[in-house]
């Protein structure tokens, strides 16, 4: 081992220290650095952390305090108020840097153990979040007041910390996993009211920006919001009620692990604890939950594959015998036994480990071994991150870094450290593999029928285990609750007979699925909704193929399962012979929407209900065709766009009817709805919003008026129509809502008018639009309204896009915009690739083709007839801009990524996947083509 902390460091570190001390002398009084004891302490910190020295140079007063009392007291907290609003980011970042440097000082000099360092990192992050939230809350309330529930009670944001933040064991340079929630729906009571969801989403986004956004002072804490329901695809802030419904319907095994450690760390803590009480049955089941091991096996398999693929054996977090294996082992045992033993539900790992030993769910020797290994690994993890404040878990490759870390941890050299580390990791891996050893299963013919018919009071759950349910206790509890439910008890004899015949088949099919418990939960949700509709039970009883198909669908598609449970009418689609036949074309889809509730325009609610049912049925049929492989993902996206066209046409007709009823019509006026983005490009996904732009034209221009009893000036008349369209598309009915709408692509964006005249639209595109707006115009397409106006808008589009441009300037603008988007939106990380925004993803391909159109369509006018990606690839290939090999490779790449993204959507997963061979090939094709045409979207290329 190396010499004690009071001794001077070895001579091999003198070149490093020779650079450090002059920097400090330049900012400190000379007498402070004259004490040999002080010099030794500074030298030891300097060897362990460049970050600490950088902070001390910037904050010399901090070094004075550390030398005086070794950081016995944390630094003073910043005060954020209206008088120093511009300084908030800097104040928080300086506070975090000072607090972190204090932790380094105390850790390196042996004044704190690893437990204290983890607790200190947690407390520092909590205080930054709390101080930041209080500041942005006060500022936000001045604009919008506060949200009140129906009883007039003020509501506050609840910020949950998950992961190591929630567990109180945050590592030194970790991001913070946050979920934003609020207790009740309501509205703010200020002059500019906001509903609760938007109010708290905006508030949370401001908080994240205040902490996360890099400035000249660096960052305060990296904020990760992806653990909320549906990840990045989900809303930013969720009500407690919406969260509970999500976990009841769609909660996954990994979310149980995540929410084990959840803790309200800012905002309304009391409300947060109430929510966690209500969530406890989701996390901790009433029965011995050995199914937790099955979910753990899946998560571990994914991590093992990632480690192998990315050669992460030296990653002390994810690699074999690493920190995550200890965490998973302890959490799995908590999930198995915690439902019955409340003392095992601690959020913190080390106390949980001790509780497992005390409860005799783990041997004392194993408990001590894992606790020792955990402290060794966490201390090393902190030192890796303390070196340069980097979020790393990998052992360093540079010899000098290895030497510094080994010395600072008290080892003679790196070899000694590595040998000690390998011993600890081997012990952890042995314990972890023993936990995951699979159990054998046996099959019991006819046992499920006997079991089901004995419920709710009889029956042996072993029948479920023998059939293949790993989580037999949970399945048994769910089925007993279902059998006791009023819906089942109130069935007629004939309906009960059908249910008794259907249930064993459903159970057997669910048990044979890839995720038995997930399939069972989804099936029971569906059955609850169809019990009173005997026709559905009869169909399931009499159509075994359809029953098997139902289980298959709900097992593999969260989206379709959710829609079946919410709208049982979709069972008609599942069991209809047409679902396996040819799909309706564009005209048929439009006609089906146009015929929704004919003659009922005076009853908007009735029209929306019927139209929603039509949309649900048709989109379900499209989804089934894609899932079954009868329709490619690309063709499915096109059909979804055609369906959306039909819906917008019908809604526009309804909106114009309502406005005309109140204000008459504007004689001779024309109105058009233009689809942008994925709608315009005919590449719509399931659940995608619609990018819409509204254009009008009227004789007499701005001076025209409607001819009703309460006439409106023309701009206001069409603004009312556009507002109606947006509201009707987003209105919630018994069959759900039609679509969310985004109107930010209109001229001048959010600052511009909701509707534009044809003349102003033409002028804007000619004189004021940015390059990125012309890029968006590439995909713009007439969707609904007056076809002659649609043709005029298309003329504007063609004239704008075919303009002769400076090719180099276009290239610079397109590359700059793409780099900026990737920096803001790309969610690719070590585990998964962002199919849309990642390098070589779908947006890169879109930008490549948009660049082609802007830079070269003056010489290739035929390109302007194409809007979707496939057609643009073919058109640019036929003209020779793309060569034959590029056309084939990009067409395949597009198909691969769209197919992967649609599969994620169907299972309600974020569009982020581990990179397999097909995705790697697609990325390479797109990135390669972009670079060959002078478009290097790589962020590093600009440095």
From TrEMBL:
Residues 298-435, 817-923 form the PII-uridylyltransferase/Glutamine-synthetase adenylyltransferase domain. It catalyses: [glutamine synthetase]-O(4)-(5'-adenylyl)-L-tyrosine + phosphate = [glutamine synthetase]-L-tyrosine + ADP; [glutamine synthetase]-L-tyrosine + ATP = [glutamine synthetase]-O(4)-(5'-adenylyl)-L-tyrosine + diphosphate. Keywords: ATP-binding, Ligase, Magnesium, Multifunctional enzyme, Nucleotide-binding, Nucleotidyltransferase, Transferase. Residues 1-439 are annotated as: Adenylyl removase. One of its GO terms (cellular component) is cytosol. The keyword Secreted does not apply. GO terms for molecular function: [glutamate-ammonia-ligase] adenylyltransferase activity; [glutamine synthetase]-adenylyl-L-tyrosine phosphorylase activity; ATP binding; ligase activity; magnesium ion binding. Its cofactor is Mg(2+). This is Bifunctional glutamine synthetase adenylyltransferase/adenylyl-removing enzyme. It comes from Lysobacter soli. The lineage of its organism: Bacteria, Pseudomonadati, Pseudomonadota, Gammaproteobacteria, Lysobacterales.
């Amino acid at each position: 081992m190396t010499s004690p902390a009071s001794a001077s460091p070895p001579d091999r570190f003198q070149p490093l220290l020779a650079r450090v001390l002059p920097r400090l002398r330049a900012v400190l009084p000379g007498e402070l650095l004259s004490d040999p004891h002080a010099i030794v302490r500074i030298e030891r910190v300097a060897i362990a952390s460049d970050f600490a020295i950088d902070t001390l140079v910037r904050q010399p007063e901090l070094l004075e305090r550390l030398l005086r009392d070794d950081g016995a007291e944390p630094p003073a907290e910043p005060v954020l108020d209206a008088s120093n609003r511009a300084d908030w980011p800097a104040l928080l970042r300086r506070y975090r840097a000072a607090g972190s440097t204090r932790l380094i000082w105390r850790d390196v000099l042996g004044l704190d153990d690893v437990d204290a360092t983890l607790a200190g990192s947690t407390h520092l992050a909590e205080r930054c979040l709390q101080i930041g939230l209080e500041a942005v809350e006060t500022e936000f309330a001045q604009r919008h007041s506060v949200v009140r529930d129906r009883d007039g009670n003020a509501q506050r944001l609840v910020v949950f910390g998950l992961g190591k933040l929630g567990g109180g064991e945050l590592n030194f340079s970790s991001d913070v996993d946050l979920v934003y929630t609020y207790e009740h729906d309501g509205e703010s009571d200020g002059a500019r009211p906001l509903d609760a969801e938007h109010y708290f989403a905006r508030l949370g986004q401001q908080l994240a920006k205040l902490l996360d956004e890099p400035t000249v002072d660096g960052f305060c804490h990296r904020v990760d919001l992806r653990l909320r329901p549906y990840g990045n695809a989900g809303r930013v802030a969720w009500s407690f009620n919406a969260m509970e419904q999500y976990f009841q319907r769609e909660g996954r095994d990994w979310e149980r692990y995540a929410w084990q450690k959840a803790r309200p760390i800012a905002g309304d803590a009391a409300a947060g604890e109430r929510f966690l009480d209500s969530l406890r049955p989701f996390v901790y089941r009433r029965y011995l939950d050995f199914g937790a091991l099955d979910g753990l096996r899946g998560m571990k398999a994914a991590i093992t594959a990632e480690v192998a693929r990315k050669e992460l054996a030296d990653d002390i977090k994810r690699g074999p015998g690493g920190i995550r294996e200890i965490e998973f082992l302890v959490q799995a045992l908590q999930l198995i036994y915690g439902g019955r033993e409340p003392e095992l539900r601690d959020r913190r790992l080390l106390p949980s480990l001790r509780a497992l030993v005390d409860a005799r769910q783990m041997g004392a020797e194993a408990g001590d071994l894992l606790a020792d290994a955990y402290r060794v690994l966490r201390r090393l993890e902190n030192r890796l991150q303390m070196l340069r404040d980097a979020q790393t878990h990998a052992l360093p490759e540079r010899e000098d870094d290895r030497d510094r870390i080994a010395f600072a941890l008290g080892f003679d050299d790196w070899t000694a450290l590595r040998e000690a580390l390998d011993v600890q990791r081997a012990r952890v891996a042995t314990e972890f593999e023993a936990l995951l050893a699979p159990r054998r299963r046996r099959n019991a013919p006819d046992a499920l029928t006997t079991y089901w018919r004995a419920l709710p009071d009889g029956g042996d759950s072993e029948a479920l285990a023998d059939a293949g349910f790993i989580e037999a206790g949970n399945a048994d509890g769910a089925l007993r609750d279902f059998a006791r439910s009023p819906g089942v008890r109130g069935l007629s004899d004939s309906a009960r007979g059908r249910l008794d015949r259907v249930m064993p088949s459903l159970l057997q099919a669910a048990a044979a699925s890839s995720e038995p418990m997930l399939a069972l939960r989804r099936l029971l949700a569906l059955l609850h909704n169809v019990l009173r509709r005997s026709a559905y039970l009869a169909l399931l009883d009499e159509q075994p193929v359809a029953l098997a198909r139902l289980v298959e669908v709900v097992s593999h598609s969260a989206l379709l399962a959710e829609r079946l449970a919410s709208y049982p009418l979709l069972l008609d689609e599942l069991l209809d012979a047409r679902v396996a036949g040819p799909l309706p074309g564009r005209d048929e889809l439009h006609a089906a929407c146009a015929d929704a509730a004919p003659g009922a325009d005076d009853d908007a609610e009735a029209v929306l209900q019927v139209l929603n049912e039509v949309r649900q049925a048709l989109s379900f049929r499209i989804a089934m065709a894609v899932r079954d492989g009868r329709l490619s993902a690309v063709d499915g996206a096109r059909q979804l766009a055609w369906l959306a066209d039909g819906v917008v046409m019908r809604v526009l007709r309804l909106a114009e009817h309502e406005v005309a009823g109140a204000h008459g019509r504007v004689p001779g006026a024309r109105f058009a709805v233009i689809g942008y983005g994925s709608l315009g490009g005919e590449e719509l996904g399931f659940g995608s919003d619609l990018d819409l732009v509204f254009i009008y034209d009227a004789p007499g221009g701005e001076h025209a008026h409607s001819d009703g009893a309460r006439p409106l000036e023309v701009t206001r008349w069409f603004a009312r129509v556009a507002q109606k369209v947006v509201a009707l598309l987003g209105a919630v009915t018994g069959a759900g809502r039609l679509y969310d709408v985004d109107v930010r692509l209109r001229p001048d964006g959010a600052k511009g008018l909701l509707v534009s005249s044809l003349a102003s639209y033409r002028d804007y595109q000619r004189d004021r639009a940015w390059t990125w707006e012309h890029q968006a115009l590439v995909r713009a397409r007439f969707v609904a309204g007056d076809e002659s106006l649609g043709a005029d808008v298309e003329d504007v589009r063609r004239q704008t896009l075919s303009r002769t441009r400076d090719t180099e300037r276009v290239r610079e603008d397109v590359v700059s915009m793409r780099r900026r988007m990737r920096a803001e939106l790309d969610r690719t990380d070590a585990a998964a690739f962002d199919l849309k925004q990642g390098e070589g993803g779908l947006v890169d391909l879109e930008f490549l083709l948009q660049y082609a159109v802007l830079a070269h369509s003056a010489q290739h006018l035929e390109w302007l007839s194409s809007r979707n990606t496939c057609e643009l690839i073919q058109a640019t290939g036929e003209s020779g801009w793309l060569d034959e090999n590029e056309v084939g490779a990009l067409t395949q790449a597009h198909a691969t990524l769209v197919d992967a993204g649609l599969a994620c959507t169907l299972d309600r997963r974020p569009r982020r996947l581990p990179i397999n061979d097909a995705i790697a090939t697609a990325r390479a094709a797109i990135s390669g083509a972009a670079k060959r045409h002078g478009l290097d979207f790589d962020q590093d290329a600009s440095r």
